[in-house]
Amino acid sequence: MPRHVTRVAAVAFILCFVARQQSPFFVALMNGQLSEIPLAEILCELTAAKLSGALGLKRERAKAVIYVQEGGVAQVATNLRPYRLGASLRRWGAIREEIVESVVTDAMTDVAAGAALVGAGACTKVELQEFLRRQAEESLLPLLLWTDGQWSFDPRGRLPESGPLKIELPPLLLESARRLPAAYAAARWPDAGELLLPVAAVDFGRLSLLPAEAFILSRVDAPLRLRDLLALAGLPEEQTRQLAYTLTLGGLLQRAGGGGSRRAFTPEAIAQAQAATAAVAAAANNGDRASAGAQTRTAVSAGDAVADRHDTASSGAPAATGETQLEIDALLTRACSTIHYALLGVDLDASPGEIKRAYYALAKRFHPDRFLREVDDEMRVRVEQAFARIAQAYEILKDDKARSAYDKTLSANSSPASGARPRAAANSFASGTNAGQRTVTTPGPAAGGNATSHKAAELFQQGVAAAQVGNHAAAITFFAEAVRRAPGEANYHASYGGALARSANAATRRQAESELRAAIMLDGGNASYRVWLAELYQALGQFRRAEAELERALTIDPKLTAARQMLDRIKERKPKG
Question: Is the pTM of the predicted complex or chain greater than 0.85?
Answer without folding.
Answer: no
